[in-house]
């Protein structure tokens, strides 16, 4: 992979946007605190993708609010007492093929940490074996991407991700790349501001 890489970490609600620019095409993946909040009440979204997020309305001064959409594939992963359910032997595929984590393609039960793979926009056609994931992050891609992946790979089904640790890694990537946090892509003055005009 060659091209320019940019990382933006949004300070509002600890929302993180990781932008990857390659050949003047921008692929953007989002991890939002919205998912953490959903996890905190015992649900997995199971269809995390850019199309299931939207920004707030400009006329309501909500351009820095991001909303999660489409809860149709959500699944409660805890019982009534808040205890995590045992993983099923085989879980049918749920989600969008392009954005689904590898474990979903392997029909394994999804858990909270598998959704962090969304950062990297893994595509089944490009990544067929988990051991090849490291090849997705050649220089000049921020080394922190690999650090997040290594951390999430260390988690087991019942483990709760340390969201603050992940946000900290991403903030460090922003700082080490000397990237400007503002304006965001969708704000006036941002790289794609013409979309809103």
TrEMBL record:
GO terms for molecular function: ATP binding; protein serine/threonine kinase activity. It is an enzyme of class 2 (transferase). Its EC number is 2.7.11.1. Residues 1-197 form the Protein kinase domain. PANTHER family: CASEIN KINASE-RELATED (PTHR11909). This is non-specific serine/threonine protein kinase. The lineage of its organism: Eukaryota, Metazoa, Ecdysozoa, Nematoda, Chromadorea.
């Amino acid at each position: 992979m060659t091209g320019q890489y940019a990382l933006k970490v949004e300070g509002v609600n600890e929302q993180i946007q990781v932008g990857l620019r390659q050949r003047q095409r921008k692929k953007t993946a989002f991890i939002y605190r919205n998912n953490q909040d959903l996890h905190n009440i015992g649900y997995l979204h199971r269809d995390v993708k850019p199309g299931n997020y939207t920004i707030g309305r400009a006329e309501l001064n909500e351009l820095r609010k991001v909303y999660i959409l489409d809860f149709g594939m959500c699944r409660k992963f805890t019982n009534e007492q808040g205890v995590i359910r045992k993983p099923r032997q085989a879980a049918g595929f749920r989600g969008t093929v392009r954005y689904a984590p590898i474990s979903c393609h392997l029909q394994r039960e999804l858990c909270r940490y598998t959704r962090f793979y969304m950062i990297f926009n893994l595509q089944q056609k490009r990544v067929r074996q988990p051991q090849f994931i490291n090849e997705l992050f050649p220089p000049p891609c921020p080394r922190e991407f690999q650090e997040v992946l290594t951390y999430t790979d260390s988690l087991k089904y019942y483990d709760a991700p340390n969201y603050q640790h992940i946000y900290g890694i991403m903030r460090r990537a922003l700082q080490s790349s000397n990237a400007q946090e503002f304006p965001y892509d969708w704000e006036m003055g941002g790289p794609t501001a013409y979309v809103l005009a």
